[in-house]
Design goal:
three-stranded antiparallel beta sheet, 4 helices, alpha+beta, Multidrug-efflux Transporter Regulator, Chain: A, Domain 2, about 90 residues, single chain, 5 strands, about 20% strand, two-stranded parallel ribbon
């Protein structure tokens, strides 16, 4: 007997993969990362500022103080898919 991935989890994973595939640009915005993970862009920026963003880092403009993140799409993909649910049937 195989375990089934719950439908809501499957839909969240599909949405995240759609966001990852949505652009050919190497860099993802805070908004794209937030959309893929189902959180706000502010949450992503705060995580980066606190050093808790394993797939990217924060940049702050010296002139304006504006915060932005750098997230490479391929690195984000590898981070997102690192724990594939092997015992589950997808």
């Amino acid at each position: 007997m195989t375990n089934q991935v719950p439908e809501n989890i499957r839909k969240m994973d599909e949405h995240a993969m759609d966001v990852i595939r949505s652009s050919a640009r190497a860099k993802m915005t805070a908004e794209e990362v937030a959309d893929a993970l189902g959180v706000s862009a502010e949450t992503i920026l705060n995580a980066a500022e606190g050093g808790n963003l394993p797939f990217g880092f924060l940049c702050r403009s010296e002139k304006t103080g504006r915060r932005t993140i750098y997230v490479n799409r391929a690195i984000f993909f590898r981070w997102y898919t690192r724990y594939l649910m092997a015992p589950y049937e997808v």
